Amino acid sequence: MFRSLLILILLVHDIFSKDVVLNFGGHNKHSHGNRAKRQVIIRGEDQDQYKWPNNTVHYYFDEENFDFSMEETILRAMEMLSSHTCIKFSTEPSDVIIRMESDSDSNYCFSEIGHVRENQQFSFTSNCYSVGLAVHEIIHSLGFMHAHQRADRDEYLHFVMDLDGMSLQDRQQYDIWEHQILLVPYDYGSVMQYADADDNYFPINKNRFMYQTMGSEVVAFYDYLMINKYYECSCGHDAPKCQNFGYPNPSNCSQCNCPYGFGGDDCSQRAEPGTTLQATKEWQNTTISLDAGFRHVNHLRMRQIDYIYSYLWIMAPENKTTEIRVLQSVSGKCLRGCGRGAIEIKTNEDPRLTSPRFCCNESKTVRSSHTPTVVMAYNSEGLNEYTIAYRYVDTE
Ligand SMILES: *[C@@H]1O[C@H](CO)[C@@H](O)[C@H](O)[C@H]1NC(C)=O
Ligand SMILES: *[C@@H]1O[C@H](CO)[C@@H](O)[C@H](O)[C@H]1NC(C)=O
Ligand SMILES: *[C@@H]1O[C@H](CO)[C@@H](O)[C@H](O)[C@H]1NC(C)=O
Ligand SMILES: *[C@@H]1O[C@H](CO)[C@@H](O)[C@H](O)[C@H]1NC(C)=O
Ligand SMILES: *[C@@H]1O[C@H](CO)[C@@H](O)[C@H](O)[C@H]1NC(C)=O
Ligand SMILES: [Zn+2]
Question: Which residues cross the membrane (predicted)?
Fold first, then answer.
């Protein structure tokens, strides 16, 4: 009968995004004893209640209230999701359907969580702009909450925010929800993780270098996997064997979904475009240049709605440690969340997890004990050039 109505609002300034829950349904706080604590990031007690049937999201653009300059952003976001998961998007009429608008009064972006009702709300404006933020909103529509609202977030974030002093509406973007299933590990680089705009929550201890990485508009490997697990998307037995922690891609079972930096149908190759370099005992330098150009809209020069990427594979002999030092990065891109471009050195042992990103001009040496070490650069605006130095040393 009564379905809780939950609306999230994403308010985006240049460097941070902020969701606000507008309306709060009746029964998120109840639980019925025998259910184990679960989460992903779905709400409600019945984990299937808010799933889209047949993995198909129905939507239409409201002709009167949608800003069609944002149509390409939304369609690309859908294309990214449908090419990595079994989720499909359909403009066929349906009882439950998303009405896409651009709420120009608030300039907010928001979405209801999951498959809810006829003409359910979704707003996307030019303030939000990027494909990554459109993916964020659509992932809400698929039934998921924010990463920093996961049941395990206190193991990853040190919250100093005064939640009790906040309005209910604000709180609902930060509170841990009761009914959750955790389907994937915590990833600070999730597109569902807010940047820490006001020094309110920090990655704990050893993860402190993940600070800039929070607030990412790059869709994480684990974001797609979370969707595939919840919607039970999979491939049959003849799917290819995937290397380097990839898994068969439910949208095309002849390919794999690969961690960033790996490619080819089975993730055994270097992702393109890219270069492979051999580390030596001596420091060597290399410069990565990524020219994203600009998007021209009504004579305005804007950043692109999506990123371009390039990859390095830095090879070292077996059992050696690779050291990589970022010597110089790009001015004007030092933003929380590194939304305009950054370099990420994949030091994490699990290549599926996001590693620390660098978008400020800081000189830092990082170490990796695997080979290849993937260095990923991405950019959405003009020319970015990053200079790094690399070598190998004996493993201690
Ligand atoms: C799901 O797909 C089946 C078979 O194609 C169809 O009969 C059914 O109506 C679909 N359900 C919805 C809710 O679209
Ligand atoms: C699926 O992937 C294979 C292997 O990369 C490719 O040849 C094929 O065109 C893809 N199919 C579709 C429908 O995209
Ligand atoms: C690498 O770049 C740094 C800083 O630009 C410079 O000091 C150093 O000499 C360079 N090293 C090599 C081997 O080119
Ligand atoms: C690397 O380390 C492993 C485990 O300690 C050892 O078995 C192997 O022989 C080492 N390889 C080389 C080339 O040193
Ligand atoms: C980055 O810092 C280096 C060393 O402090 C400096 O030489 C360089 O000009 C800076 N680059 C930018 C783009 O700010
Ligand atoms: Zn959100």
Answer: none
> Poorest-confidence range of 130-134, 279-283, 335-339?
335-339
Q: What is the DSSP letter of 75?
A: H
Helix axes 131-141, 221-230, angle to 10 degrees: 20
pLDDT tens-digit series, residues 316-349: 999 999 999 998 777 778 888 999 999 999 999 9
Q: Tell me, what DSSP letter sits at residue 34? A: T
Out of 64, 79, 112, 137, which one is annotated catalytic?
A: 137
CA distance 73 to 246: 27
How far, CA to CA in Å, does 95 sit from each of 54, 118, 142, 150, 206?
14, 6, 16, 30, 48
Say which DSSP state 61 is in: E
Backbone angles phi, psi at 177, to 5 degrees: -90, 155
Give 205 Cα–ligand 3 centroid separation in angstroms: 32
In 320-382, where do the E strands start and end? 320-328, 341-345, 357-358, 364-368, 373-379
The one-character DSSP state at 208 is: G
CA 85 to chain centroid, in Å, comes to 14
Cβ–Cβ < 8 Å for 211, 203: yes
* All domains in the chain, ordered by first residue: 2-213 (3.40.390.10), 234-270 (2.10.25), 274-394 (2.60.120.290)
CA distances from 342 to 130, 138, 197, 330, 378 (A): 16, 24, 18, 8, 6
Report how far residue 279's alpha carbon sits from residue 314's, in angstroms, rounded to the nearest whole number.
6
Ligand 3 atom closest to Cα of residue 282: 13
- 137 in catalytic set: yes
pTM: 0.89
